[in-house]
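Ticket closed. Logging final result for histidine kinase.
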Amino acid sequence: MLERSIGEFSRFLVIALGFTVFGFATGLWLLGLALALAIYLLWILLQQTRFDRWLSNGRQGPAPTSFGIWGEISDDFYRMQRRHRREKQKLHAMLRRVQDSTSALREGIVALEDDGNLAWWNPAAGDLLKLRADDAGQPLINFMRDPTFVRYVHDANMQGPLTLPAPGNDARTLQLEITRYGRDEALVIVRDVTRLHNLEQMRRDFVANVSHELRTPLTVIAGYLETLEGSGQAPKPWQRPLAQMREQTTRMTSLVNDLLLLARLETSERDTGREQVPVCELVERVAREARSLSADRHNIVVDCPQDAVLTGDAGELHSAFANLALNAVKYSPDGGDIQLRWSMDERGGHFSVRDSGIGIDPIHIPRLTERFYRVDAGRSRESGGTGLGLAIVKHVLLRHSGELSVESRPGRGSTFALHFPPHKLTSTAET
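Final structure:
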């Protein structure tokens, strides 16, 4: 830039010197110098006018030809224009490749601008959400009017995918997941999970129906076994087999009841319970049941320094609390300590069960809430567990906006905790 300025100043000096010499020769050197300055300024103004007209016309074609500093500026603009054109072509080619690749995907992809307005979508999303070309710029919630989805779009804290019926077709099930980026921009991934949804529904119906049908024959078998054992007429060699049959019938009945409860939790709507459940009273009740199962083999302590009222389904909450407490009794050695504790803070309410049992290897913790998952299959059968307790706890928490956390080390016991959000709690001082 400095070199250009020096060069342009040199040109002006040459012109001024020439007209000054002419002025000295004619005796009008001052007029000659003024004439040189006027001609130079006129030339500069002409070059600027041409360049400004080229810019105003949208820089169509190459920059105007000139010499001097304006010629160099025109050449620079021309080079920048060519470089910009090449970069623009590269971006267009990249955009076409991205659009072609996303168009080939079976999953729908929707790009949202500010306020959740439709910016772009691939053909799969257009088919799944019934979008047309003239829908661009409209809010996505105009086409997905489910209140749950509206909250999902506007609440940045909501995580994970959302499963909903397809717009205009309840027989089709969609899974939508939002990824947010930039400033109020988002990408929505839409998948057709109808087949998986139907298979899952078939599994639930099968489990529920089979479990329900098993209750009647189990009740009959248990009744006859009780009659035979109570009559005292059974031959002595049969007494041991009858006791084992009764034990296994009781275990199978417990399994059927757990399956039916789990099926009901999975199929019913969330957040349906509106009962006001006193937490300390619930914890004391669960402690009594744990002490009954323990038969004084464990030291069970209750710590509930601050009572509260938990909004939800009383039966489901009792099931979740009791499953943790009874598991602690089953997997703790005789003489072990078990603590049932309720606490509250700014994050909500927390019910924890800490035992002094055998502990759990951390690699098993992520799978503990799976149905029938067992860390130690032999020990679980000996304890009489069904393998569904923590799965029931998980679904109860889902229906009460809660979370489960597990801390455990082999040989150091375990701590299972249920966490409930503040909006589910009411202090007893307020009631």
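The first strand starts at residue 108 and ends at 112. No further action required.
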